[in-house]
Amino acid sequence: MKIQEVRLTPVAIPDVPLVNTKGVHQAVFLRTIIELVTDVGLIGIGESYGGARALNGMRKAAESLIGLDPFHLNELRRRVEQALPNAGGINAPTMLTQHQVVDAVYSAFEIPLLDLQGKFLERPLCDLLGGAVRDRVGFSGYLFYKFKKPNEYRGADLFGEVMTPNALLDEAKALVDEYGFRSLKLKGGVLEPTLEIETMQLLRDEFPDAPLRIDPMGAWRVPTALTVCDAIGDILEYLEDPVRGMDAMAELASQTHVPLATNLVVVEFEHIVQAYRNGAVQIILSDHHYWRGATGSIRLGEFCRAGGMGISMHSNTHLGISLAAMVHVAAATTNLTYDCDTHYPWTQNDIIKGGKLTIENGSIEVPKGPGLGVEIDADVLAEFHDFYVSQNLRDREDTDEMRRYIPNYERVVPRW
Ligand SMILES: [Mg+2]
User: Which helix (H) or strand (E) holds 37?
Assistant: First the structure.
């Protein structure tokens, strides 16, 4: 079995205005759908970032995949590194962390190669990662403060404006009702810390048994984070990236018993060593889109185990192919003890056959395969590719978008 053709299809999908430390989600989010066509008639599929740097990296490396045996992941890494010398990072300058183009491109192609291996062997993808240790993967309900969606944007809104603690509580109740989430995560760093403390306390009162977490994406200074820890530390499962940068995380960690998690300061294997030495984090979030694919994410789990750290899973706004891959990876990550993050409930469209994957009782059944166990609906893919072409957007820019709602908005991180 050899790769004969690489198809990269960028798509734009209607989004809703979810607010975060940097700004607000735009009218659409961008993804790239990957299809690797082989000489035996099998096609491996994957999904990755849709921003220009990642897409250009995939396009540059695509040619080098021709002739590759889908079982040779080390050779994939070699070819991607050779095709992308000194490629740098994929993120726009306004992002809070940087992922290496080489890691993102390798990751983007590894999933379709594993999908091909699974299809060839007629086994689910998780069997290639050591096998599933759970039949279902738990996800937390991902809560956001948000604006009302402008009427001129394509697609329906969800929940209208949610910019107060009580409105956020209503949003949480609706999501728990619909999906049965048993744990909840709030994207914080948006309102004054006192209001976010109040929000978490309302959630605790309403859902007394649910593990709770908050992720202000570096919006707080260390003294502010300590105030939050004093107020609600005892009701938190963990606190995610409360302060910005490894040094600030280490300073905070030395002064609180609340476990600190991150997807901003530890995003490469080299960072784990530094975080371990200075005690900056207790939980690392995996993500197969940049932790060198599914195999890298499993290795990350072993690093965490060795360092006495926990492992959870990060999410970017995504579609069902990414979600299927997340479920396979989570199912095979033996020491994953937290519910994973997912933006999926906020996405009302998908490009997979049969519509969206089902979240029930806060969890998703591990697809039976073969490979990922999901397939592309070619007509819907074409529709959202046409939408991408028609949109004048090639990169995510949450800060500019924020000025649509707050004209004099200035991005400041940390803000409080
Ligand atoms: Mg985060």
Answer: strand 28-38
d(CA 199, CA 65): 49
Q: Distance from the CA of 388 to the center of ligand 1, in angstroms?
A: 26
* Single-letter amino acid code for the residue at 30: L
pLDDT at 94: 64
Task: For domain 131-372, give the CATH number.
Answer: 3.20.20.120
Domain residue ranges in the chain: 3-127+379-390, 131-372
Handedness of CA 268, 273, 274, 276 (dihedral sign): positive
Rounded to the nearest angstrom, the distance between the alpha carbon of 308 and the centre of ligand 1 is: 20
**Residue 173 a catalytic site member:** no
Tell me the two tokens of residue 342. Answer: 């997912």
3-state secondary structure of 130: coil
Give the single-character DSSP code of 24. Answer: B
187 is catalytic: yes
Per-residue pLDDT reduced to its tens digit, 13-60: 999 999 999 999 999 999 999 999 999 999 999 999 999 999 999 999
pLDDT for the residue numbered 173: 98
Residues 6+ apart with CB under 8 A from 233: 239, 256, 257, 258
CATH topology of domain 3-127+379-390: Enolase-like; domain 1 (3.30.390)
Predicted TM-score (pTM) of this structure: 0.98
